[in-house]
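User: I'm new to structure prediction. If I give you an amino acid sequence, what do you actually give back? Let's try with this one:
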Amino acid sequence: MPTNEIKSKIETGRAVLVGVDAGDMRDGECEISLEELRRLLDTAGGEVVATMVQSRQTPDVRTYIGSGKLIELSELCENNDIDLAVFDCELTPSQIRNIEDELDGVRVIDRSMLILDIFALHATTAEGKLQVELAQLKYTAPRLIGKGTQLSRLGGGIGTRGPGESKLESDRRHIKRRVTALEAELAELAVQRKTKRAARDRSGIQKIAIVGYTNAGKSTLLNRLTDAGILAEDKLFATLDPTTRKFSLPSGDDVLLTDTVGFIRRLPHHLIKAFSSTLDEAVCSDILMIIVDASDPEYPAQLEVTENLLAELGAGDKPSLIVYNKCDREASNVPAPTTEHGETRRSVCISALTGQGIDELSQALEELVRAGKKKIKYFIPNSEAGAVSTLYTLAAVDEVDYGAEHITVYATVDARVRGMMARYEAQDGSNPPLPKKEEW
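Assistant: Good question. You get back a string of structure tokens that encode the predicted 3D arrangement of the chain. For your 440 residues, that looks like this:
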């Protein structure tokens, strides 16, 4: 069925940022998070007029910041003509209602709603738009309680991009039907994506996912390596939809590079789930290229966020290369190579903008690819010709020679396939002794 278009009209809102400095936060963490929220709002087209921080051990259950601070916030909004309050957290439906009742006419959104709004702004592919709409409906629908008969929250502006409707009661039914339809469409696209990925797997070309914190320079790097021509801006979440391009290594072998959506602090789990198809590019890759903005003083924490999310996705144990980007800037501060589990962690320093270090990066990728796959000669008895089909399915078959008693196959395989086919592997160029079939 045709999909509703996601509204992307930016209405510049005069906003106040609101955060809570809890007792379990490290020094400066609240300010760092609010600065990131400021950049998110700038990406969405908003204007930050003021910032308010409440220091308390735990957020208030009813209003998040407490009744006294809420009165102070109301006066701040009234005196500065503020029409949008952005909370650096995830608010419950009742908290949104209680805060808006006190602020009287000021729209209230939380960190997740702002990120979703940016996703709506930057989604370009059909699948990306479907994912955004589904995430918006699932996240925003419960938070419409108490808005009266009009769904004004979905009418346009920061935190409100999405499928707008008119009456609350009738739209509850519409939203439920729409969510079901979107899930069906995305499931169908997931099958198509799985088919394409299987074809890539059969090609034997190594897949490298470019991952990292938002605005670390992932898209700029892909453009530098492949002339992909994709949008690369100095803004958070400038890239939402994955882009895959072929890249030739120094040896002439090709690999597939995929640009992915950036990570960020406190990315809600429901957003990770909503964009699982995008993040699957990292899960299904052979190698991870983790991009770090070396000019950002917070890069160690950003790298930690990235690696924690990769582990949560099930991609934490993949071969990886740490790429410290923006090393041409004076503020860059690249650490000395670290050692983990007795091995020095692979890392390179580059500038995707100027091209500095790109040759070293290409060589490091070459070494990782070579470590991951090898060209092996196999002797397969004619009676077990099905093993050739297995190689065609799971590896890249380079040459096949059908002999009188056995089939000689040259194939490029990874460690998993090599283990599966070990009994057929040639030793010193000769046919290895094969056990009888009943012995294996």
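You can read the tokens as a compact description of the fold. Here is one thing that stands out. The chain has three domains: 14-169, 204-356, 373-439.
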